[in-house]
Amino acid sequence: MSCWTTNQKKKNKVAESTNKSLSELIAEYQPRLKTFIRQRVSNKEDAEDILQDVFYQLVKTAENILNPIEQVSAWLQGGSEYDYQSWNKKT
Questions:
Q1: Which of 2, 7, 26, 84 is most buried, most CB within 10 Å of its CB?
Q2: For residue 56, how many C-alpha atoms fall within 13 Å in the half-sphere facing its CB?
Q3: Cα separation of 36 and 39, whole Å?
């Protein structure tokens, strides 16, 4: 098995239960999460940074084959809330 195939399988673990690729998941959840974050953060750039971090964590978690995400929607919502709380403590 090639290295690329192994990495692709790891990334697909996140989307396994929904049969969607990471890019499809991001496209699907980005508008909803963006709205969620923008309701809490008045600065557009800060909201974009938080959203970007949530999706970075999604990709990073997808690479961990031992810890697959089974409920992507709940994971993303929780990650958004956590990142917002972390950002809010810094400001």
A1: 84
A2: 7
A3: 5
